[in-house]
Amino acid sequence: MPETPLVISGLTKSFGALKAVDNVSLDVRDREIHAIIGPNGAGKSSLVNLISGLIVPDAGAVAFFGRDITRLPAPDRARLGLNRTFQISNLIANRSVVENVMLAVQSHAGSSFRFIRPFATDKRLRETALHHLGRVGLAERSGVVVAALSHGERRQLELAVALAMAPKVLLLDEPMAGLGPEDSAQVIELLATLREELGILLIEHDMDAVFALADRISVLVYGAVLTTDTPDEVRRSPAVREAYLGEEA
Q1: What's the whole-model pTM score?
Q2: CATH number of the structural domain spanning residue 200
Q3: Which pLDDT score is estimated for 120?
Q4: How far apart are CA 60 and CA 98, in angstroms?
Q5: Residues 73 and 174 occupy one common structural domain
Q6: For the segment 146-185, what is each residue's pLDDT rounded down to a tens digit?
Q7: What does the alpha-carbon distance between residue 4 and residue 222 come to, in Å, rounded to a whole number?
Q8: What pLDDT score was predicted for residue 150?
């Protein structure tokens, strides 16, 4: 059996009197999509912030391929291959779409980009960046300045940047938000393909996308995991219907 890439044990975080994350334990297995769903205010974003290293837990642990990374800063987690999209945007608004991905490719390779002119004319970097842009459906927008992109296109670009960092596990925070039906369908198809390569932790409000993609679903309510099960079992659960899904199930 391959080692479980991401294991979260008893994560807890309070902000004053509010317990945003309450003793959460779950994992992301190799080549699976594990979705987290729940009502607004359930603690989903706080949980992803803990996993990605943006905030420090009050209790609990995060292990990545068997290594304790609970206190490791977010940039170090990213360098290990735990990459997150759609948090605080790290896109450079006054540079082109392809240049943003080229920078990610170069950063992952560990080379310096102090000299912008050699970087901008590097054919190898550009070809690799265009490959990732093609995967997310932005190849034809490669020369556009990021500031001119729509909200949905920026989300697609952030996914391309994450892929350029050669992730081992992806943390996706509402990748379909702001996308039209055609772009959403393309992202769903991409994520289904990525499942064959790595583990994905997916937060998404689009229930059609969740039930189409997820191998397992954890339902988060008031900061705690109500249940973790297969999509069919989650859909049938009376407790989940009462707490969250309702008529959506």
Answers
A1: 0.87
A2: 3.40.50.300
A3: 64
A4: 39
A5: yes
A6: 999 988 888 889 889 999 988 999 999 888 887 788 888 8
A7: 27
A8: 86
Q: Highest-confidence range of 102-106, 154-158, 214-218, 241-245, by mean pLDDT?
A: 214-218
- Is the domain of 77 the same as that of 173? yes
Q: Which of 150, 166, 182 represents a domain boundary (last residue)?
A: 166
Q: Return the percentage of the chain with pLDDT > 70, whole number.
A: 90
CA distance 149 to 97: 9
pLDDT at 85: 78
Kindly state whether residues 95 and 50 are assigned to the same domain: no
**175-208: burial string, b at 16+ Cβ within 10 Å, e else:** bbebbeeebbebbbebbeebbeebbbbbbbebbe
Whether 174 and 103 map to the same domain: the answer is no
Domain hosting 229: range is: 1-81+168-249
Q: What digits encode the pLDDT tens for the residues 35-77?
A: 999 988 899 999 999 999 999 999 999 999 999 999 999 989 9
Of 147, 166, 185, the one marking the end of a domain is: 166
